[in-house]
Amino acid sequence: MPESEVAAAPPARAGVERIAHVVKRGDTFAGILTSHGIDPLEIRDYYHSLTSVGFSLLYPGDSIIIRRAADGGLKRFSLLSRIRCWYEAGAEGDRIRAEKRPVTTAVQIRLARGTLHTSLAEAMWDIDVRDAVASKLADIFAWDINFFIDPREGDRFEVIFEEKYANGRFVGYGDILAARYVNRGTTHYALGLPDAGGLMAYFDREGNSVQKQFLKAPLRYSRISSGYSYRRRHPILGIVRPHLGIDYAAPRGTPVYASADGTVSFAGTKGGYGRMVKLRHGAAYETLYGHLRSIANGVRPGARVRQGQLIGRVGSTGLSTGPHLDYRMKVGSRFVNPLTIKAPSKEGVAPEDRARFEAMRLQCLALWDLRFPGSEEGCFTLHVEYPSGEEGARVKYVARSGGGDAGRSGS
Questions:
Q1: d(CA 408, CA 411)
Q2: Structural domains in the chain plus CATH codes
Q3: What is the full DSSP assignment across 17-37?
Q4: pLDDT tens digits, one per residue of 74-87
Q5: Reduced to 3 states, what is the DSSP secondary structure of residue 180?
């Protein structure tokens, strides 16, 4: 184990054996201590003392230091947890004293740049950025890009994001600060601006919210099995009639989410739709979700739902030849094509935040276009932020990542 991972632990005393252990998948508290010869009664007492200060779980990659006396008794137990804290317990006379202490966390600001050849996740993996960042990026652009069918070979991305380190060890990813994605020749921007509570809101280059009123798709699906049409031959009835929705083929049980904030106007069984949920979004819009296997708990007429909230699961109820979601949208009394309608955005940058947004926008464009011009791909360190009062508050561009800390699995 690198010394940097255990530098904060108290030094070992003379006559005390020091044992280091890195937690692996499947390890347990009792199993680890038993393997190092600790008495079961001591294990029980130490476990109870640690749980009294908040300890609950071990995570793969956690660092443990065991200090054992010459007679084999446990003198001190230290755990550097991935939740960025130290748990420590030690014998003091005939009792065990435990404590929980925070760990100083440093944040690296990084820029990932790449080109798609297969998928976004694989393109990021190729430059040592893990799935957590790809998933966050897909969520941010979910209103404009469906990353299951829209991406094309040759799409390009540039993402500025946070990596967190505790005692020199990678402990997870933070926020995506800004992103630029070119899909089929169209450039999409997401520039993050934290609110008073620190939560990120994302805006395009002009300051409009990237969060539209409706998600482009209410589920993760395999393919569109039937599109919006006024002349489709029904697969069961065998007659030609309008299909004023989109059929998303997906495995049975796939989660279905509300495509926008709204109120449940219907939840139950309705003719050929089978199990169906209908949501009302303000005075003008309505969405329908048909052929569900099940409807989520709490989804009942009159209930409020939030965008992205689970409302049911894909099934094949009603007139259906296989598991899929029949997703429909109405504006007033008229059905519209969910894939082509121009959805309204949520509120843009507030007037009082405009100056802060402009400064951030210019900084991001300068990073993308001036500091890292051209087509070089990889993961670059922009700077490192340390807690206030520590030396080296900003370390500028260091080097291109090549399988270092950024390649470690994250949260």
A1: 10
A2: 3-102 (3.10.450.350), 105-211+346-407 (3.10.450.350), 223-336 (2.70.70.10)
A3: EEEEEE--TT--HHHHHHHTT
A4: 999 999 887 778 89
A5: strand
Counting residues of the chain whose pLDDT is more than 90, the rounded percentage is 40
**Percent helix, strand, coil in the chain (nearest 5)?**
15, 40, 45
Q: Which H or E run contains 279?
A: strand 275-281
> What per-residue string of b and e applies to 152-189 under the rule 16 or more CB within 10 Å gives b?
eeebbbbbbbbbbbbbebbbbbbebbbbbbbbeeeebb
Q: List the structure tokens of 267.
A: 């939840």
Q: Give, in degrees to the nearest 5, the angle at Cα 215 between 213 and 217.
A: 155
- Give me 118's structure tokens: 């297969």
Per residue in 2-44, pLDDT (tens digit) is 333 334 444 444 567 888 888 888 899 999 999 988 999 999 9
Contact status, residue 102 vs residue 157, Cβ threshold 8 Å: no
Asked if residue 119 lies in contact with residue 138, where contact means CB atoms within 8 angstroms, the answer is: no
* Res. 92 pLDDT band, cuts 50 70 90: confident
Q: Which residues of 112-138 are buried (b: 16+ CB within 10 A; e: fewer)?
A: bbbebeeebbebbeebbbbeebbebbb
Share of the chain above pLDDT 70, in %: 84
Indicate the helix (H) or strand (E) that contains 44. helix 40-51
- The Cα 389–Cα 331 span in angstroms is 56
